[in-house]
Amino acid sequence: MIKRLLILLLAAQALLIGLLAYGLYHWWRPAWQAELSAPATVAFYLACGLAAMLLIRLLISANNFYLSARASSVTPPGHALNLLSAASLFCHEFHASMLTSSYYMLRPIGMQLQPRQQQQGLPVLLIHGYGCNSGYWLPMSKLLRQALISHYGIDLEPPGASIDDFAPQVHSAVERLRAETGSAQVVIVGHSMGGLVARAYLRRYGDAHIAKVITLGTPHHGTVLAHLGPGSNALQMRRDSAWLGTLAESEANTQRMLFSSIYSVHDNIIAPQDSSDLPGARNLVFGAIGHVALGRHPAILRCALQEIADVAPRARA
Description:
Elements: H1 2-27, H2 38-70, H3 83-102, E1 110-112, E2 124-127, H4 138-146, E3 151-154, H5 163-181, E4 186-191, H6 193-205, E5 210-216, H7 232-236, H8 242-249, H9 253-256, E6 259-264, E7 282-286, H10 298-309
Parallel strand pairs: 2-3, 2-4, 4-5, 5-6, 6-7
Antiparallel strand pairs: 1-3
């Protein structure tokens, strides 16, 4: 469903670019434009329309950083930004969001199996975040294939459902991945809401078949920016929501020890950023990385892959 919605959104953006180009052509005609050929004129005004669309997307990204900065907790020592690192943070996040929404999510990854005699380590289940699909994981999938690790990127449906409604989908995916690989246990990697989906799954089905859960930028205590999104899951991800409180009360400390929470103190969607700090878990803190960029930033990918490589199957009770 997300892929179809994205295609419609991209088509709407293309139409808007055309309308902007047409309007600009009738409103602004500099003297030097008369010297251009007809194809060059069309290309020029379409380029102007595209630039205007990119500016809109850039302003949306900038607004997210502004809103998250207003709700930010104190930046930990060693993670202060200077002008260069702040510019790098913004550019990398904008680039990541454009790639994700215009390319990655058009290519859901599905099941990626290695021959059983060649597969390394435990298989990995990849759970995307709010408003995404499994295409978000394309950079991670490439590295997992290179490491000969079987993995499965699921697409949670419908997009605005309650997080609890996604738990049966995760259960089916875990069982399918175990059956396809012959592994008794799997590793779960969840981005953003995907980490909460993993916790909802564990609450309902237990952890017998899960060796490790790795979350990237997950709002374990909610985010103030969740009020901007539609759907039941957005309501559940609001800062200190009743759903999050009930979820935390249901978890044993031993289950939290399965978690590694990887997050950035400069996340532009999870605010305050220490909302990703999960008590009882292994918390791995980075800086100068945005929310969408967590799925493709080299430092985060290296960290997540190392966490996956270090996992050993747990003895079953």
